[in-house]
Amino acid sequence: MYFRVLSQGPRRMTRPSHSSPAARHHSYLKSRALRDRDCDPRTELVHNRDEARAFLERKWRKVLDYRLVKELWTYGDNRIAVRYACQWRDDAGNGFRSYGNENWKFGLHGLMHHRHASINDMPIKENERKFHCPLGRRPDDHTGLSELGL
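The chain above was modelled as a monomer; its predicted structure follows.
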């Protein structure tokens, strides 16, 4: 089983800021466990698409002004590893930078079977923000993680 890369060079990944939970939940298998730490409780298991959609709807009500930058770390066969950093604020107005690594494993039809993430949250002040692009697709010329020292 192999994962085919459809484009040469770095590939832009779809950001949640312009992708609805209704659309994003379809990247998950109909029956699989998804672990994420952004909703209460800090660890929540999601087992199917309906649960994934409800989870994402709850998450995006709490995680506001979300900006995300990912860099491809490595890939092979049906697996991809990325490192990422994102900035967001909670519904109380507190700012955060979350950063870490994600490992993805895909099934035969390109749906995600497994997602393992190591995530660190760090409170930040407004003047510590590094991502200043508007909501929506990040501009092609936006500085990457390595250039930002992250």
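Strands lie at 31-36, 44-48, 64-76, 79-89, 95-106, 112-124.
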